[in-house]
Amino acid sequence: MASRVGRAFGILGVALLAVAGQVSMASAKPVTVLVPELPPMVASDGTGREASIIGETLALCGHKAEFKIVPFGRHWIDYRDGAAVDAVATVPTDMPLPGSRSAPYIRYQNGASVLKAGGLAVASLADLAGKRVITFSGAPDVLPGLREAIPSFADFRERADQMVHSNLLFAGRVDAVLADGLIFAEYNRQLQEKAKNGGLPFDPQQDVVFTAIFPPTLYTMMFREAALREEFDRCYADLVKSGRVDAINRDFVSRYYSTVGDRYLSNR
């Protein structure tokens, strides 16, 4: 009899804990985060490598991430100008913004991508002297040595829409793309899907070569409230210890292996 009562109370205890957990999650304050649309880091539907890391970190703290997705670069401006959000993601470690800065939570691997058929070997920015180069908006403030190298290029462009990068490379209008390898690979994939219906004036199936000529770029988050930032850092550390962050990274890198090979954050 006593054992049955004990078991009954044990089951009741588990049930009460489950209900308490559900109530806690339901009552948790949503955390609104400004993020740039950069698939496969953050796609327009709020999924992606970076979205997963942020969302799962906040969930571990009992919060629900609500992403406000805007074009790259505008996320910093909107946050700085007082947007009604709790945090902004994808902030370079040395970018001055108001609020409380988190520990770095993600690394991007920027590099140079060229058409294999062109035979251009790129080991450093010096190899792009006299070449036509395109990169993302704000890259000279993010990629080491780029600003100093710009005068050596035959042509240099910054474009926020990174689909344009792939378009121009495949069309032969630029010689090199300087960008994160996964982002570049994802836009190539989108172009390849589009080409199935015809209509593209170039072949997006051309072989490309990605070389990680820059050190990994670390990004942080800025929070309006220090207490929320402290929660994020603590829960992110727990997520790392659990192996979940590594699992997310491996999953996304493997999806684009045909483009980045073992050169994305390899041995870094």
TrEMBL record:
Alphabetical list of SUPFAM superfamilies matching this protein: Periplasmic binding protein-like II (SSF53850)
Q: Which domain of life is it from?
A: Bacteria
Protein name per UniProt: Transporter substrate-binding domain-containing protein
